[in-house]
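User: I'm writing a tutorial on reading structure tokens. Could you give me a worked example: one chain, its sequence, then its tokens, then a sentence or two explaining what the tokens reveal?
Assistant: Sure. Here is the example chain.
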Amino acid sequence: MSEVESFKKLSSIIKVAKSKDSKQLELNMDSHVVYVYLPEKQYKAYVQSTNYPEIALSMVIFPAVIELLNRVASSGLSELEDYKWYQVLDRKVELLGHSIDELKDQRISAIVLAQLILDDPLERSFEEVGELFKNED
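And here are its predicted structure tokens:
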């Protein structure tokens, strides 16, 4: 699997954790690793979703990456360039043949770029859901 196809580098900068007090999914981007905080019940379901990784990725990581990209698009480069998550994201975007500048000047949207970065997570999720329905028959 090529570096572009691999989620390993991106997963090193996005961690899912249990929220102490929030009732909603929240993102903390103010360190080298981005933390996606889930309420306790959702976090337990996420941890138990190991048999359905694509569905979990689409439900948790995909919106987090969209939000990251939106922050990148609306922030000054100097605010973010020291963060490891930004450097990995920037490199991943370059490997895909795009640039952060395209995002900033809206030549590509955050949602489209997130799908490219995660290698079409919706398609894989729907395949996983299809397998679930097949197994029920």
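What the tokens reveal: The longest helix spans residues 53-74. Confidence is low (pLDDT under 50) at residues 1-7.
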